[in-house]
Design brief:
heterodimer, A: 2 domains, 7-stranded parallel beta sheet, 5-stranded parallel beta sheet, B: alpha/beta, Rossmann fold, two-stranded antiparallel sheet
Chain lengths: 320, 246
């Protein structure tokens, strides 16, 4: 019996979501009166995992892990689940998490619930609450199989410190050769991604042209935020598709989401409603976004945003 | 090349989301069903394989009779034939098992599906299907080229994209970005007329295990009213002291 958590790393460091799934795994292990095992790869310093409650840490060290084939990653996690006799496997909802989780579930013959937002409502039957209908509802789902896979929705549970003595072992299962190979990667360096951001600054058609984004970029910079946009903005080619958030774009689940010149169409809100605090800046007091936001300013973005940037620079200088 | 495009029949994106029978069923009253947007982008990309590379395009859905209107729309867009597996699409693994049967029987080499459906947002089916079939698999695909049996795809990752190479047979979970918005096709009269004559085969489901069961639904808690702020100073103060997010 155990709970197995997959802690994803990037460039040798744990992502925030890795610590969130570890926090969740620790609480679930307590609820189920069992142990938490965290499996990871490509990191040397595992102290962050111990800080969030990992009793046992497996560091993957198979040659096969250098692959870019998610099937091989799934085999790696399945091997860990089998070795540890895992009852529940917990995986984050990053692009890699949602890639590998269904494969793990199918290989383990385990029922899989994605977008889970809380600890189980009950253990027997095993029922978890998950997001459905693009954040417009929740569904309580029973997982009927003995082994279960949970995909934890990003920023839904939070981080809980739980310093624990942990044992660290290397874990080197035999893995098959990958059949999918990465040939190149293009990533913008030095930017905060929508997936990792605590703060997202997003703008819409209210900016009127692709040439007016300087002030948005300034706001992004002073807040250390990620930049995002509404769908028409990317369709018009003002910004890249990778920045589009909403029902058909990326999910924005940040602590703060600032919407500038975005009307708040239902498809846009569907993708951003799980952000904790939303601020809207719009000339039109009737714009639907005001109904979903915590704070709003009615007025011209071209006046408000530069002022906000100035004042925030001063604020940051004073508050660090 | 035989291409299978998996279509999910979902409520239109503007639908009011309500539930009936003690919040256990989605209320379809007055709801218009459409092709899942990610599937529509994917189908549009598949038409290119048909027109430029002579591929045959079959569309499939797991659903009851009411989902046939959505399949007919896919035929009107240009798919060659359609299959409906006569079952409720509830659990992701159940759906993947039904699709796997269709793929095996039809000998499809390239299976395209949307990254997720916009109703349950499960994001499960493409990966599970690939696992069951032991096909190569890439998710979050925003570009596909097939040259003989070699497949080159681009996949969206945090802050960028990566190019992956693999080979048929393959399952791809694709999403918006795979075609330009302007390439989406609105069926014309001729397409709609032709769609009526194209084969739509109904098959019965195979026996398959349901690993999860959707119980009741809940709506998010009502949100308190938006605070209208007059100045940027006040906004910064509220974000710092009240919301504690900066
Ligand atoms: C199937 C489907 C899927 C979709 N998926 C998505 C999705 O994932 N994401 C998404 O964003 N959209 C999506 N849409 C599109 C959505 O319906 C809206 O069209 C879109 O969100 C509107 O973008 P916008 O708010 O930028 O533009 P608009 O609706 O044009 O709003 C512009 C806003 O800017 C305000 N404004 C104008 N000038 C100023 C100024 N100077 N200062 C301040 N404010 C100003 C206006 O008052 C207005 O409210 C989808 C649509 C469909 C049909």
């Amino acid at each position: 019996m155990s709970i197995l958590v997959f802690a994803e790393s990037s460039e040798g460091k744990f992502k925030k979501v890795a610590l969130e799934v570890t926090s969740y795994g620790k609480k679930l292990a307590e609820q189920m009166q069992t142990n938490l095992v965290v499996v990871t790869a490509f990191v040397e310093d595992t102290t962050p995992l111990a800080k969030y409650g990992a009793g046992k840490i497996l560091i993957g060290n198979s040659d096969g892990l250098k692959t870019s084939d998610a099937m091989v990653y799934a085999d790696f996690l399945v091997a860990a689940a089998n070795q540890e006799n895992a009852d529940v496997v917990i995986i984050d909802s990053s692009v890699n998490g949602v890639f590998v989780a269904p494969l793990v579930a199918a290989k383990l013959q385990a029922g899989y619930a994605s977008n889970v937002v809380a600890l189980p409502n009950s253990l027997s039957p095993f029922v978890v609450k998950r997001k459905a209908f693009s954040n417009k509802a929740f569904n309580n789902t029973e997982i009927k199989t003995a082994t279960k896979v949970i995909g934890l929705a990003k920023n839904s549970f939070g981080l809980f410190e739980n310093p624990t003595e942990s044992s660290v072992e290397t874990f080197s299962p035999d893995l098959p050769d990958g059949r999918v190979n990465r040939t190149s990667v293009e990533t913008a360096s030095g930017i905060v991604t929508i997936a990792d951001a605590d703060i997202i600054v997003s703008a819409g058609r209210g900016l009127k042209s692709g040439d007016n984004w300087g002030m948005v970029e300034d706001l992004v910079e002073v807040l250390g935020a990620a930049i995002a946009c509404s769908k028409p903005v990317s369709d018009l080619g003002w910004r890249s598709h990778t920045e589009h958030v909403g029902q058909t774009g990326k999910q924005a689940s940040s602590n703060l989401y600032i919407a500038i010149g975005i009307s708040g169409a239902i498809q846009h809100l569907a993708g951003v409603n799980s952000s904790k605090v939303k601020v809207v800046i719009n000339t039109d007091a009737e714009a639907p976004f005001f109904k979903s936001a915590e704070y709003g300013m009615i007025g011209d973005a071209f006046e408000i945003v530069p002022k906000l940037v100035d004042k925030l620079r001063t604020f940051k200088a004073e508050n660090g | 090349m035989k291409v299978l495009v998996c279509i999910s029949n979902v409520p239109d994106t503007t639908s009011k989301i309500n539930f009936t029978e003690n919040d256990t069923k989605f209320d379809t009253n007055g709801v218009q069903f459409v092709i899942n947007p990610h599937d529509e982008y994917t189908l549009t990309r598949a038409m290119w394989f048909k027109e430029k590379q002579g591929a045959s395009i079959t569309v499939v859905t797991i659903g009851n009779q009411s989902s046939e209107a959505t399949l007919r729309k896919a035929l009107a867009i240009g798919a060659d034939d359609a299959i409906r597996v006569n079952a409720e699409a509830t659990d992701g693994y159940f759906v993947a098992q039904q699709l796997a049967e269709v793929v095996k029987n039809g000998g499809y080499e390239l299976v395209l599906a949307g990254r997720e459906s916009i109703d349950y947002n499960g994001g499960m089916v493409p990966g599970m299907l690939a696992s069951i079939l032991d096909y190569n698999f890439v998710n979050a695909v925003i570009g596909i080229e097939v040259i003989d049996s070699k497949v080159v795809v681009s996949r969206e990752i945090d802050g960028g994209k990566e190019i992956m190479e693999s080979s048929l047979p393959m399952v791809l979970g694709a999403q918006k970005g795979i075609v330009q918005e302007t390439e989406l096709r609105i069926p014309n009269m001729r397409g709609i007329m032709m769609a009526r004559k194209k084969p739509l085969t109904v098959v019965e489901p195979v026996e398959a295990e349901e690993m999860t069961v959707a119980q009741n639904f809940e709506k998010p808690e009502a949100k308190s009213a938006c605070k209208i702020v007059e100045s940027v100073d006040e906004l910064i103060d509220l974000l710092h002291n009240e919301a504690k997010v900066i």
